[in-house]
Design goal:
Order of helices and strands: EEEHEEEEHEEEHHEHEHEHEHEHEHEHE
Radius of gyration: 20 Å
Oligomer: single chain
Shape: globular
Number of strands: 18
Bound molecules: zinc ion
Length: 339
């Protein structure tokens, strides 16, 4: 089969490799759609903390079952599936507590095991979900970032009527925006790129503010009668937006950190956490039920995914697409490999 292998930073090569053989509890899946995530780009430029080349990248994908291990019941050859790409061990301290997203032995597709920028990939059957009829492969491939967004807003305890600021309107930011609006929040969106702010406005953001505006904190305070936002979600992964989050959140409010800056340390006004009883939390993956809910939302057209998919490409073009993505990062949402 053909697979795109990240050989070293800035070098992705499409090569002929053997079709993988599924283990007893695994499915062999013909990949039909696979999206490029921000973490794939980070790996491409050699800046991802967990991904070491050589590796086949890709984890946001869907496809058709073409083979299965001897121990797999409940799936048939030919079924359309989407896969939760983080394979937990099922027996560590966290897995036993049903917190399998914190698993000590987690293997993620495209991180520790070969990913989905290939004609075929193998996945643990217990992390596969049947696709409802009428749900396209390319939309289903975005179930993973949607599941991340659902988990993030659950962690933050979002409630109706709250004022929520989302800093960073990448694909996850635009998904968070849509889910937060459905929960009845007033959402203010920020990004440095006007093209993304236009998307946020079109999706229903109450206000959009360019993150470079020196007035951004004043404007958020004005929008909340001087109090500050109930919830600020940092989804840009920069030191500047982390500082903004602390300046915008109200006393007793919540800061949810989702972006990854790549820095080990950030200087933040930690004393405010105590004095103002702030909740500061992080989020990374998704919990039990989030993936199934994401698939159902996609099936019901409850989120606009068309707005995120800016480009479709073939496996043979992947190297070009990575390069183009680096050249014009302002237009990066999701590019999807389709078969
Ligand atoms: Zn991803
Ligand atoms: Zn585990």
């Amino acid at each position: 089969m053909k697979a795109a292998i990240l050989k070293k930073p800035f070098e992705v090569v499409v090569e002929e490799v053997p079709i993988p053989v599924p283990g007893p509890d695994e499915l062999l899946i013909q990949v039909k759609a696979s999206a490029i995530c921000g973490s794939d780009i980070k790996a491409y430029i050699g800046k991802h903390p967990l991904i070491r080349p050589p590796i086949i990248l890709g984890h946001e994908f869907s496809g058709v079952i073409v083979g299965k291990g001897s121990g797999v019941d409940g799936f048939r050859i030919g079924e359309r599936v989407v896969v939760e790409p983080t394979f937990a061990c099922g027996h560590c301290f966290f897995c036993k507590r049903m917190e399998y997203y914190l698993c000590e032995n987690l293997k993620q597709l495209g991180h520790q095991v070969p990913g989905s920028f290939a004609e075929y990939t193998v996945a643990k059957a217990r992390f596969a979900y049947r696709l409802p009829n009428g749900t396209s492969f390319e939309k289903a491939a975005l179930a993973q970032p949607l599941a991340i967004s659902l988990h993030a807003l659950y962690r933050a305890g979002i409630r109706k009527g709250q004022t929520v600021v989302i800093l960073g309107m990448g694909a996850i930011g635009l998904l968070l925006l849509q889910v937060a609006l459905r929960r009845g929040a007033r959402v203010i969106a920020s990004d440095l790129v006007d093209f993304k702010l236009e998307k946020a406005k079109a999706l229903g953001a109450l206000r959009v503010i360019n993150g470079a505006s020196p007035e951004i904190v004043t404007e958020i305070r004005a929008e909340t009668h001087g109090t500050g936002a109930d919830l600020v979600i940092e989804a840009a992964g920069s030191s500047a937006t982390i500082q903004q989050a602390f300046s915008m959140v109200r006393t007793g409010g919540t800061i949810l950190l989702l972006g990854i800056t790549g820095h080990e340390r950030e200087e933040v006004p930690l004393e405010r956490v105590t004095l103002d009883e702030l909740n500061v939390m992080g989020t990374m993956r998704y919990a039990m039920g989030d993936f199934a809910n994401a698939i159902e939302m996609i099936h019901q057209n409850a989120v606009d995914l068309d707005t995120l998919i800016l480009r479709r490409f073939a496996l043979s073009e992947i190297s070009e697409v990575f390069e183009e993505t680096l050249r014009s990062p302002e237009r990066v949402l999701r590019s999807v490999m389709v078969v």
